[in-house]
Amino acid sequence: MDVSFFSSTIVQVALSIVISWALFALLCSMILEVGVQIKSERGRFFRNKIIEKLFDFSNQINWGLLMYNNSNIKLLTKSEKSTSNRNLFQNFGGSIN
After folding, report:
1. Which of 6, 25, 48, 68 has the most crowded CB, counting CB atoms within 10 A?
2. For 45-87, how does the pLDDT look when each residue is reduced to its tens digit (9 = 90+)?
3. Which of 52, 86, 90 has the alpha carbon at shortest distance from 68?
4. Are the beta carbons of 54 and 63 closer than 8 angstroms?
5. Rounded to whole angstroms, how far apart are CA atoms 97 and 77?
6. What is the 3-state secondary structure (H, E, C) of 9-78?
7. 63 close to 55: Cβ distance less than 8 angstroms
8. Beta carbons of 70 and 50 less than 8 angstroms apart
């Protein structure tokens, strides 16, 4: 009598629960990412946290605002007035040099 590990009912049920949970987590993650992309939440969150974290309390200088007010960084915006995405890396590379 040859008994395989995967022929056990308990193992099959446990494996199906794990796979179902993984697929459900993947679906939830995809739905969340679509919502974040539609609302452009990630960029605003990143900007707010950069401004918050780069504030120099001892000198009362906000390096985050200085960085975002740089003209080369402003060219990276998604507005209709901004340049095309071709210049994205060139502008970003020029702003950090």
Report:
1. 68
2. 888 888 888 888 888 888 888 888 877 777 666 665 555 555 6
3. 52
4. yes
5. 19
6. HHHHHHHHHHHHHHHHHHHHHHHHHHHHHHHCHHHHHHHHHHHHHCEECCCCEEHHHHHHCCHHHHCCCC
7. yes
8. no
